[in-house]
Amino acid sequence: MSNGAKRGGGLLVAGTTSDAGKSVVTAGICRWLSRQGVKVAPFKAQNMSLNSFVTREGAEIGRAQAMQAQAARVEPTALMNPVLLKPGSDRSSQVVLLGKPVGEMSARGYHGGRQEQLLGVVTDCLEELRGTYDAVICEGAGSPAEINLRRTDIVNMGIARAARFPVVVVGDIDRGGVFASFFGTTALLSPEDQSLIAGYLVNKFRGDVSLLEPGMEMLRGLTGRATYGVLPYRHGLGIDEEDGLRVSLRGAVRESVVAPPVGEDVLRVAVCAVPLMSNFTDVDALAAEPGVVVRFVDRPEELTDADLVVVPGTRGTVKALAWLRERGLADALAARAAAGRPVLGICGGFQVLGERIEDEVESRAGTVDGLGLLPVRVRFEREKTLARPVGSALGEAVEGYEIHHGVAEVLGGTPFLDGCRVGEVWGTHWHGSLESDGFRRAFLREVAAAAGRRFVPAADTSFGELRERQLDLLGDLIEEHADTAALLGLIEGGAPTGLPFLPPGAP
């Protein structure tokens, strides 16, 4: 490293639970190291997520790893997330290996047979990154203390053991019980795994840190391990979240905190929270606009006051179509279209707005009637489209990315990106298009005009700059509230030696 740490070092960020803050902490460490002139890369051996991204090489990886690569100021690649699992139901997922889908597999089948082979793949990817970068910051998944899965683990202690990386465990104190979680997580591990648990990071703390100090001292006395920092609670840091399945519908609002509306009115956006919702991060660029309020909804009456309704991507297009009909949302969307009120379908949401879907791949449901709001017919192919298209719409340059099995045959309407527009119903396969500032502003002007709102998009909102500011905030959290010298020491030298073993159940 340019600041004295040796080439090829690293660290694994684990968590006491899912959503403890591993992704945010990993991104924060990457941004902090990048500021120090360290050439750093993120890594997550195995990710389960419906929010994914397409790299410039045409590989599909988790959006969280793409965000962490941006935090590290490097180009994301498939090496950074070699295994991506995309749930299609409670019991099966599509397996994406090195950026390409290799088939569907049940949870039992996945954990029962492929792990030894996959461990070789992920360790090879990690070693390639270590040969290129000064440091690699790995993110774990769930908890390393999921002892029912330890034998087949390739993302937590499995990869830490293979690389001999020290592990810092993150705990969300906002949930409560963080000290018990730290102790229990450590105590449940084998002696070999415990030898790599270097210490802990408290996340999402509200209040006076001095009140925590007695607990941290007691924890050190019980475990022999230090707490490397207490990160304060910060709103608006859950960028590029991994799982759309966990979006809470009631009160789920993404509202601009940048500034009040530029015009006289706000613009209200309702996002249909379809089953297996994917890449719901598409609407983050809308929520970044001053005066735009974005809500996730699941009832037709919630569309009544919406100026724009978005039908987002989904890993289950036919399932989402049935859900829209069962909930009465399909009729509400048809009524909006007839009244000339704006609707935008993205990827799977675009597909359900069409006339017909032929699916022998994803749902194997055969031919299914769509909502008939766009003159489009969709046929699912086994080969997945993974692309980074560029183009123009509404007189503005647009960039996006495509992730879909469905191939759309557009039979009419006005061309719109790779899809079409009929009246105020718009459809495209392009994720991320709303991050193009000029296009987003032009689109919102069209929506406001159709909705009769005196809404004016801000002329200077840059989604890219806002994202950079968020990533800088993550770096600030680490730099200002973590023991960065100790973290750098772990990255350089590995876990401290002589750490005590805690027999399970011991005080």
Automatic annotation (TrEMBL):
Ranges for domain CobQ/CobB/MinD/ParA nucleotide binding: 12-244
Enzyme active site: C347 (nucleophile), H431
Gene name of the encoded protein: cobQ
PANTHER family: COBYRIC ACID SYNTHASE, DETHIOBIOTIN SYNTHETASE
Function (record text): Catalyzes amidations at positions B, D, E, and G on adenosylcobyrinic A,C-diamide. NH(2) groups are provided by glutamine, and one molecule of ATP is hydrogenolyzed for each amidation.
Pfam families noted in UniProt: CbiA, GATase_3
Organism: Streptomyces cirratus
Pathway given in the UniProt record: Cofactor biosynthesis; adenosylcobalamin biosynthesis
Origin superkingdom: Bacteria
UniProt family annotation: Belongs to the CobB/CobQ family. CobQ subfamily.
InterPro entries linked to this entry: Class_I_gatase-like, CobQ/CobB/MinD/ParA_Nub-bd_dom, CobQ_GATase1, CobQ_N, CobQ_synth, GATase_3, P-loop_NTPase
Keywords assigned: Cobalamin biosynthesis, Glutamine amidotransferase
Full protein name: Cobyric acid synthase
Every CobB/CobQ-like glutamine amidotransferase domain range: 268-437
Plastid found in the keyword field: no
